[in-house]
Amino acid sequence: MGSPGFTLIHVIISIVGIVSGLVVVGGLLSANRMPILTAIFLVFTILTSVTGFFFHDPHVTPGQIVGALSLVLLAIAVCAYYVFHLRGLWRLAYLGTAVASLYLNCFVLVAQSSLKVPQFHAAAPNGTEPPFVITQAIVLLTFVVLGLLSLGRFHPEAETP
Length: 161
Prior knowledge:
This protein is an all-alpha fold. It has 6 helices and no strands.
């Protein structure tokens, strides 16, 4: 495990990524690119995944697998937004990967909260109990709905952001 100071930095980076991501997804729902917040969201979400690899464990952890998947999604999102300027199918690629990477960050937030917050841990000590499963299902359903709604609403013009 990382030092308490490193863990705090990782948590702060994660919270910035999640909060900025939620605002960016709100912008997608109103066809607003929010270029500065999008950059913040992408950078901090990438940093979240990268810093997650610095928590030492002798085995590959679920968090590392989620982090690797998130980095692949974020690479596609960055290319779709900054290289291909959301043209054509790149708009769909951006929407899907941005929303999915935010979902993964929230998935980990729920999982870590279940492990680290005593009240949540008491309700789901193994991560298989109904409160945990229901919470994760609600989070997943929320992001599926947000992603589908953004598909119908986010149609930026094909120009450089």
